[in-house]
Write the structure tokens for this entry.
Amino acid sequence: MLYLDDRTLPAVWLRDNCGCPECADPRSGQKLFGIADLPADLAVADSHDDGTTVTVTFAPDGHVSTFARDWLLAPAASDDRTEDGKEFDLRITDVSWSDFEADRTAALDALMRRGFVLLRDVPTIDRQVLDVARGFGYVRETNYGTLFEVRVEDNPHNLAFTGLAIAPHTDNPYRDPVPTVQLLHCLVNASAGGDSGLVDGFAAAALLREEDPAAFAVLTRTPVTFRYADPGTDLTASRPLIGVDPRGRIREVRFNNRSARPLRAPHDELVAFYAAYRAFAEILARPAGRLDFRLVPGDCLVFDNTRMLHARTAFTEGGARHLQGCYADLDSVASDLAVLRRRAPIDTLAEQFAGAGAADYLGEAVTQAVHMLQAATLAEAAGASDALVAAALLHDVGHFTGEVSGADLMAGTDNRHSHTGADWLARWFPPAVTEPVRLHVAAKRYLCAVEPAYHGRLSEASVYTLGVQGGPMSVAEVAEFEAGPHAMAAVALRQWDDEAKDPDAPTRDFAHFRPVLERVLRY
């Protein structure tokens, strides 16, 4: 096992998560082995912690793995659907349609964390709700079709298609799995009544657990059968009203008295269930826990159907009220949100290139940003891997992200920009990107030691910084450098670095390299 700060990491866990090219496909990150392919008697034979990376040598096979230290110490992963406690949060998070189209992050974050979001000013055109759903995932088709109309029908098979009031409920509890996201887009609402309501089922269930733990336990273990049938459909599912995960966290509420079928159980179990059922229903009915509002044309309510119970007041059937709805799924929301969040570091880098990177580059004829973009352009033209193209693009970020600037380097103080840049980037990128960055200054010193003609190709500024950075390597330093797993990548990067100082050379812009950076982000 490996001891790291207050963490103890088993050898088998470390080896199972090795990301080297022998263990994981460099393109997809997927494992190239099964757990039974590993030695049964795995042990940590040796380890080295330099404060940023941890290198582990395993016995009995001598395999070597390198891990980012921060990654090893990262907390356990969790999703965004946390229990918000026992207090109902009655605030509305609303996002304009134009803002949603420009950046979905805020809307999707609200949907995941609070269970719903209200989009405003969505175009009131037929089937627009499908485009809203496709903005973050896939439309889930049901027996109602890809889209359903919420308006009064002459011969309704569902109370939703009448003007009657509808109590708080979750949709489609008779499905397995249920549609986890519901969208309702208001096209017309000129009727008297017909206001919408929401209740947070997670908060209600948490309150029940606090006020009546025995009732909570009954509702988490008693399967209830829900059924929906019409001339062309017969759907049945049996699940508890409150679903919890293996750690006991509330993860699903199925509450729909219109679809519940008779519970068949011994007398005492029936009595206990109905007492718990009533207790939960009474919490859900508390006025302090219900958010009421009126949808106006252009509003699109998007909510977590496994968490939020939705309701409607009665309305006059002669008045015009028309909503269009569809279903989607939370896994697409979570996926889209994760991808958007992954792009945030790239936005930070773009700002660095446009801001600090626009400054002069240590006396060269190009700016810092142009130098790095040119190095990446050369790496790409040479057929380098995505990771090495990214390293070439980012190799000098330490000049403007570290505490000691590039100007200090030119004044005679080594700013160790290769190390500070690699450490800064390690929050987002794997060693295949950060370690060539960390070693690109060492690669200059190495090439000066092993290739006598190399020194003559250096620019005047680079010759000066060589002296500040330690000069050519000693024989011992050369041997140590060559033994490292990223040495040759750093040498290739160094050579593009040396060439990337021509103001007339064709150079790609930052936007061109965004897809490369997205592909190599650590996730």
